[in-house]
Amino acid sequence: MSYLIGVDCGTSGTKTVLFDEKGTVIATSTVEYPMYQPKNGYAEQDPKDWADAMINTIKAVMDSGGVKKNDVKGIGISGQMHGLVLLDKYNRVLRRSIIWCDQRTAAEVEEMNRIAGRERIVEITANPALTGWTAAKILWVKNNEPEIYSEIAHILLPKDYLRLILTGEYATEVSDASGMQLLDVPHRCWSDELLSDFGIDKSWLGTVYESCEVTGKLTREMADELGLSKDTVVVGGAGDNAAAAVGTGVVGDGKAFTTIGTSGVVFTHTSELSIDRLGRVHTCCAAVPGSWHLMGVTQSAGLSLKWFRDNFCMTEKETAKLMGEDEYFLMDKAAEKVGIGANRLLYLPYLMGERTPHLDPDARGVFFGLSAMHTRSDMLRAVMEGVTYSLRDCVEVFREMNVNVSDMMACGGGGSSALWREILSDVYNCSVKTVKSKEGPALGAAILASVGSGIYSSVTEACGEIVRTDKIQVPVEKRVSEYEKYYQLYRKIYPQLKSSFAELAALS
């Protein structure tokens, strides 16, 4: 039996999982680390924390897994995207990494648009210039920390810094590099034009690979420290969402997944490049060679339910404690008692502004149609339906782009709710499934390693052998037509409130 390691370098911690070649979990380990916010809107992490976490978790799964080192054939790394890691010529980290959620670069985004032109940036990188993405952060360091900028010899993404630790190689892969805004996404290579426009030395960037390609092997020193063979290969890996797609089997046209966490993500695979010129959804290279993915984001998905729970569901919280139940389970039961449409009550989940499809930071949450007849249960049902409508908005943008979704996976906390899966299936009008493995990005990274190490011949073949469906929810025609009436009304509300949201934001 051959074994594989998947490393998932996240924002709150790094999780490493040891799998056998069929995707069975042998051992798992997680180490958490802090995020630093030296100013409002700033977000940074120390790359040393990621490296220590990776090393310690790999050693932990090898110690507890009881497998022979020569049987571990490959390592794949999944990582938080967009983070900026700057190294000098001695591979010393020059400053803490500016990570994905940092918002300090508004001036640099304007600079990028002024230098290269918004339309040209979209044409090359498949996305408009964005504050959280890497290129703007490089320019911020250039503009604000010139002494550090002058020492740069290498620029890496978070997971690619971990690769350097393992292999000594400066490399990246197409899915994660897509989020730097320096990659020519249609052609899957660095953009000489943008590098020249922004004054960034191409030699600072790593070699670009496909996600399942071998980027190197463990150095002898690292192999000895980790208890692994120096013949263990390290593949390209993937950005977190691209790795999650592989881990859930979303590797073919028509396949997609919805994640309902704090925010909500709708992610779909496409073998044909498709770019939304309005910037409502992101287009990036997929972890499957020669293909791409689209990703729409709604800001306050699970956050809406958490907000409602914390402010209005004290009874459910207390009852859950007494019964030893999950409070969200009791909230589901309360919402199940209310019919479709929540007694003509609609909810707009814009607690933190909105990304897809509105790109409006001023948008705010709304209960529409609230009357004296409505109960807490009605409002709870409306929240779940409203979040689902916002996710449907993402799917509608995909359809505008001629990318159709017929097979949807449900992930994240919301995916564990049978009621929410039912609402998703009926609102999307397609089957909604869950997968048996809950390891997501770590499994996806390991699957990529299984291809690079030669256990499977392709990502599609590996997913066919490893990813297993658990629950399946199919749409019910009568409910589909009922939800459709409410969804069409939901779509009319934001345009009528847009100017009022801006006016509200301008009030002192």
How would you characterize this protein structure?
- The chain is an alpha/beta fold.
- The chain is 41% helix and 21% strand.
- The chain contains 19 helices and 24 strands.
- The strands form seven sheets. Strands 1, 2, 3, 5, 13, 14 and 15 form a seven-stranded mixed beta sheet that branches. Strands 18-19-17-16-22-23-24 form a seven-stranded mixed beta sheet. A two-stranded antiparallel sheet has the order 4-7.
- The protein is globular.
- The chain starts with a strand and ends with a helix.
Number of strands: 24
Return the average pLDDT rounded to an integer.
Answer: 96
Regions with pLDDT < 50 over 5+ consecutive residues?
A: none
User: Which structural class best describes the helix and strand composition?
Assistant: alpha/beta
Report the C-alpha radius of gyration, rounded. 23 Å
- Calculate the terminal CA-CA distance, rounded to whole Å: 65 Å
Please give the count of helices: 19
Proportion in helices: 40-55%
Beta fraction:
15-25%
Largest sheet: 7 strands, mixed
Shape: globular
